[in-house]
Design a protein that fits this description.
With about 120 residues, this protein is of the alpha+beta class. It is about 30% helix and about 25% strand.
Length: about 120
């Protein structure tokens, strides 16, 4: 049985794959999230920096993604970890693997690119 954070991460990876351009080999989501997990911003990239305009994501799908990463953040908090506020989630489509780098920076809701 996998840990809950791995289960959630797999769901995030599947979700990103479903909204990415068909030719995506590498998918990158950069997300910033409030410490409460209820407000977030996202940027999506694929294949070495192709911008999010090629991703097919509706407001409803954005809300679902926010729910998933908020669930991950809250799982970490429930296990005595601090609330992460930045996440770089990468999916390597060919290898079928994902990685997740978490950050704990303050004041992430500024204007401009998240990169």
């Amino acid at each position: 049985m996998e840990s809950k954070d791995i289960e959630i991460s797999k769901e995030v990876g599947k979700y990103l794959y479903s909204i990415a351009p068909e030719d995506a080999k590498i998918i990158l989501m950069i997300a910033v999230l409030s410490p409460e997990g209820d407000v977030g911003r996202f940027e999506f990239y694929s294949n070495n920096g192709v911008a999010e305009s090629n991703f097919s994501i509706s407001d409803l799908e954005t809300e679902k993604l926010l729910d998933l990463i908020g669930e991950h953040q809250q799982f970490m908090v429930s296990n005595n970890q601090p609330a992460w506020t930045r996440c770089e989630f990468t999916v390597n489509v060919d290898a079928g693997k994902f990685s997740m780098e978490l950050g704990y920076e303050a004041d992430l809701f500024k204007e401009g690119s998240l990169r």
